[in-house]
Amino acid sequence: MNYCSCSADLTNLKKQLPWLREVDKFALQNSLKDLDTAYQNFFRELKKNNKKQGLPKFKSKHNHKQSYRTTFTNNNIEIKNGKIKLPKLGWVKIVLSRNIQGRILNCTVTKTKSGKYFVSVCCTYVEIKKYYKTDNAIGIDLGIKGFITTSDGEIIDNPKYLIKLEERLKKEQRKLAKKQKGSKNWNKQCIRLARIYEKITNQRIDFLQKLSTRLIRENQIICLEDLSVKCMVQNHRLAKAISDVSWSKFTRMLEYKALWHDRIIQKIDRFYPSSQLCSVCGYKNDNVKDLSIREWICPQCDTKHDRDINAAINILNEGLRMLNVA
Length: 326
Ligand SMILES: [Zn+2]
Fold this sequence. Notes:
Layout (H helix, E strand, L loop, with lengths): L2 H14 L8 H23 L18 E6 L6 E3 L2 E4 L3 E4 L10 E8 L5 E7 L13 E6 L5 E3 L4 E2 L3 H19 L5 H35 L2 E5 L3 H6 L1 H10 L1 H14 L3 E5 L26 E3 L6 E3 H19 L1
Parallel strand pairs: 7-10, 10-11
Antiparallel strand pairs: 1-5, 2-3, 3-4, 5-6, 7-8, 8-9, 12-13
Helix pairs in contact: 1-2, 3-4, 4-7
The structure holds zinc ion.
């Protein structure tokens, strides 16, 4: 059954099941469209013998994230005076995070685990004002202690408020463990946890957004390691560090912002020994493989290195070298 036959079926079902008429009709149609896309993807990949693509998954009403998508037609969606008009719901008070540009295409209404509602508004493409060209190039090393270190010698740490909040999360998690599963207090504690967790996620994304925007604005070329996170997480010592710093999210942000502003992101092979090479004379010091070594002196040219800054400089040089070849 494709979308058309499902949609025809829906019209019949609506006659039998009155509750289907209670909801926004676009919500139902869009779900059927998504299902159709999922099946088309499945069959397309099946032909290619790609076994990774699975069948569409059933959504549960107990899912932690609930959402539906509605489509714009005949001004059924409007934003005015701190309110949004949605089909079937009418005018709903909102806090507008930024002004809408372009024409509205559709809206997704989401309820988070902690019970908050969000509407994301998808609009037509609006030309982005590009940043001015610069001559700056920078290398970035994913830190073990901090978040990142740049070839300019700047060390950017994970924000303190995040670390504090993560400690609180641990505390509240311990409290949850002591409560009886399914009880009223247990449920209350679950919501409290969800709220903290959401706050951590939001704050981290905010931190990554601001940092990636700044790096893109200040630099024409950004060189970084091509870390396959899947590979890294298997390495237990680094596992926490990697997932904590959300490196992959950060690189994705850099990549799409680079496209917006005509910047270049150059990725370095993850087997390139950026920490072990001396950025001054090129001597390879195998001892630096030990992650606990934060500083070292090059036995060949006597330069004193900070582990991460040296690595970032090497990443920059290697990236520039690759760009010249290409
Ligand atoms: Zn050296």
